[in-house]
Amino acid sequence: MQKEYNKYPQTKYQTQQESRQRRLMRSKSDVFDGADGELFFIKETKSWRPSSKIIRHSESSKNLFKPIRQAALAYFELNDIEWWRQSEEHYFPNGHVLSSQIHCLNHLFAIRADQDAVRKIIQAILPEITEILPSPIDEQFCIMEKYPYKTPSYISFEFTYENKTLLNERCNKRGANCTSVDAFVYAKDQEGKHVLIPIEWKYTEHYEKVDDEYKADEEKEEKRYRHLAELSDSNLKGWKDAYYWDPAYELARQTLLMEQIIRNKPFHADYYQHIVVCPNGNVEMRTDANAFKESLTEKGKEHFHIVDPQDLLAPLQGNEKYKDLLNYLEKRYWH
After folding, report:
1. Which residue in 183, 127, 131 sits closest to 1, CA to CA?
2. What pLDDT is attached to residue 101?
3. How many domains is the chain partitioned into structurally?
């Protein structure tokens, strides 16, 4: 979700979205709650200039939809989740206005405790789903600064599960350097089967596959993943060369994690439905997601879905409870 490839030319969609966010920030839009850009020193003019796409570190929480800021920070702390680039930059949440982690949270965090809302958006993609179950990994209580309140969790963010055991990876920490899923829903279908629903979230990303700098370590990855991809019940049909490059690398590892949970049943799971959320305008990313889908078994293709974020939240239109959220998303991200 999180890596950016600035050495390559921007896509049309990236340029459009960067211009949109720049206009909002420079106009002191209420979307950013009046936040300023981080200051950068310009050598040519020997002057400091505020960035138009990175919010000042001290105000970076303004990158989040205002009603979720305090709760999102508490959720990450309570569940010991690392924010994107927190270790490198020593502040959080990230202030980059094109961050897909922020994009994901701004769309989904406000509904995470609303079982009915989560069911409606999932049913629009998977009509066989009848019940949304509480998260198998999130803490159920979140203590805020002013008051405690119960927060049942029907969407988990930065989902990992026993990665060291199931995938032979070096850590299990959510948001760190291991296979993780941007958002995750646990559900039941109309036959009473338990369904894993991993959601990979993309915003403006596009991925070049011509530079070995961005290629996974073949020796390391083969030891971890190849034997799992070659199991007869895997939807990957073996570990392919394309899987050394993102986004297929991410999607293949997420597939293996879901398959390992189903095989080993650390909690009950019968099958998975893999969702990639990506704006229709990001043609490059959607092409890559479709290419990954085509690499799967026929059964795997049936369990892989690509959806636009605005379409994902369409079932909430007309719901007065989410009027402010939808207005915010419309103004900041959508058409």
Report:
1. 183
2. 96
3. 1
In a domain, 58, yes or no: no
**pLDDT value of position 254:** 98
Residue whose pair of structure tokens reads 């970076």 in the numeric block: 60
Domain span holding position 170: 65-332
Q: What H or E segment, with its residue span, contains residue 195?
A: strand 194-201
Give first-to-last CA distance, the chain, whole Å: 22
Q: For residue 245, which of 281, 223, 287, 214 has the smallest C-alpha distance?
A: 214
Distance CA 169, CA 190 (A): 35
Give mean pLDDT in consecutive 10-residue pieces for the chain, a chain of 335 residues: 53 93 88 83 67 86 95 89 80 91 97 96 98 89 53 92 94 88 98 98 86 71 90 96 93 98 96 98 97 97 98 97 97 92
In the DSSP assignment, the letter for residue 214 is: G
- Asked if residues 131 and 121 have their Cβ atoms less than 8 Å apart, the reply is no
**What angle, rounded to 10 degrees, do the helices at 12-26 and 283-294 form?**
140
Structure tokens at 69: 């800021």
Domain-embedded: residue 45:
no
Half-sphere exposure of 31 (CA within 13 A, CB side): 22
Supply the pLDDT for residue 186.
Answer: 98
CA geometry: angle 191, 302, 133, nearest 5 deg = 40
The reply to whether 103 falls in a domain is yes
**Is the residue at 28 inside a domain?**
no
Q: What is the pLDDT of residue 143?
A: 53
**Alpha carbon separation from 260 to 160, 161, 242, 286 (Å, rounded):** 12, 10, 21, 26
For the residues of 291-333, what is the DSSP string, one character each? HHHHTS-HHHHHTEEEE-HHHHTGGGTT-GGGHHHHHHHHHHT
What are the residues whose beta carbons fall under 8 Å from the beta carbon of 213, sequence distance 6 or more? none
The token pair at 20 is: 């949109």
Cα 310 to Cα 333: distance, rounded to the nearest angstrom? 9
pLDDT at 5: 39
Q: Which residues contact 312 (CB under 8 A, 6 or more apart)?
A: 107, 121, 124, 125, 277
